Amino acid sequence: MSNRQMNMHKRQKLDTRTLGRLLKYLGGKRLFILAVVMVCILIGALVNVRGTTFIGSLIDNEIKPLLTQSGPVKDFSSLANAIRTMAIIYVIGVAVQYARALLTAYLTQDVMRNVRDDMFVHMQSLPIRYFDTNTFGDIMSHYTNDTDTLRMLFSQSIPQFLDSAMTLVTTLIAMIRLNIPLTGLVLLFVALMLVLVGRIGGASGKYFIAQQRSLGAMNGFIEEMINGQKVIKVFTHEEQAKTDFDRLNEELCNNATKANTFAGMMMPITANLGNIQYIVTAVVGSAIALRGGSVLTLGMLISFLNLSRNFNRPISMVASQLNAVVMAIAGAQRIFELLDEEPEQDEGYVTLVNAEYYGPELREAPSRTGIWAWKHPHHDGTVTYTKLKGDILFDGVDFSYDGEKQVLFDISMYAHPGQKVAFVGATGAGKTTITNLINRFYDIADGKIRYDGININKIKKPDLRRSLGIVLQETNLFTGTVMDNIRYGRLDATDAQCRLAANLVNADGFITRLPHGYDTMLEDNGSNLSQGQRQLIAIARAAVADPPVMILDEATSSIDTRTEALVQRGMDRLMKGRTVFVIAHRLSTVQNSNVIMVMDHGRIIERGTHDQLLEQKGSYYQLYTGKLELE
User: Fold this and answer.
1) Which of 142, 370, 464, 473 is most solvent-facing, going by the fewest CB within 10 Å?
2) Single pTM value for the model
3) Bridge partners (DSSP) listed for residue 342
4) 257 phi, psi to nearest 5 deg
5) Residue ranges per structural domain of the chain
6) Closest by alpha carbon to 211, among 106, 288, 326, 291?
């Protein structure tokens, strides 16, 4: 067996500790609600037992005496009182069952809300690496399929287990009071049922876990296929997509079939054993009753037989719920895998604060001043403030995504405030990786990156990223208005500031022509806009943030040449006075850069201005003249 198969086998073993961890969600106020539910279940179980034994007492204490009464007029008052009392008991039973249903629904949804909250909050703390290595469809499966299994657990399985436990205890006590030998006979059959349920449940457990994993994998594949439909059709990849889907679907089908086959065996087996037990108990009980005496009367036998059936029913119900429990534990394992993912580490202690000048010195300001500073606490208790300028320095930086294959080699460069630094080179040369390191989406293996003279490892990540504006090649717009999407760059920005940012990057013209202007609703990642319009909104979003450092990763790649000229003028105004890192394949967009870095296989092979690089007649010259293509 390979290591991968062994690991899969280990993961498919049912982790019973997961159930205990899951039940911790029933703490606090939910524990009190659960206690009230248990009281309701107990009252309901007592009502059911009393209803069952009532038949026997009705026969022995009410009907038989009536049959022996002489005279034309019989006294039904005692019978009427008994029936009236039982009716009141049943009304109480209905009331507690109604209360139980309401409380169970509230408890279930409260738990589900907290599970989803924990997942989403923790997901926000995960590093970019997690999302790079897991499909979005599989991650979404945690919030849909896996949490749905928990809903079934808390809304049905746990109440059913509690109900069954209460029913078993109360029924067992009632049976013992009626006849001990017959109770022993019933318990023998119950023991046999429990053994069979345990064996079948254990066999189905690993397949339910495999089913949840297969479901997550298939959801991930479907999500990829939906997002890539245009590519699939352009390259006529439909048949291969069907083949790949059939393979995943077949795997899910096999795992689900095996899981549900074992789970489906439980109910018939326990039900048939219950029927056999009922017949055997009836035969033995009838023999005892026919002997006469008060050991077992006819009414007692009828009550006992009904109790024995009630005693078997909870076991059958528990058996039918075992598959839901196993699925819930499988879903919980996947949820806890997400919750157990290591959050993004942040050892930084330097923060970004509003500042003001007090004489020649900077100090922290109580409100927004337009001046930002790095607040740097020291070991001796002193605090220094360094004005945020946007001075970036790379010193001998090496980097690897997986710790094995190195992708950046000895990167050394600087970008002074107000400078524009451009990166050009083939795909995979390491251009975007450098910008990912500035954001600390990933941490370097060796060397140093300094921001305004401060090692960026000392800067808290949220503060570091707040000082950076970034426009990615892949545009992400959110459900909301155009104004909402621009304001995403700075939540406290006014409408006027958002319009000013849009006007700065020449996005105001097309926005005002939309059906509702800035109040136009965007959905499905802005599918009602062109690719260029979406990119312009993303650029405006970065502009309203007004950061000292801008990162433009192919920011104009989706804009036509005419629009690019308009955007470029707006970008020039946006970049004025800021440190800007530009990644571009169109060399026309980087010609006015202060320095151009030519990258190849993770190394900077040339650097200089546009004119200097042309004079060198190296790789950049060949790219510019068309003698060399970016591959």
Assistant:
1) 370
2) 0.69
3) none
4) -65, -45
5) 14-68+76-339, 351-387, 418-443+461-625
6) 326
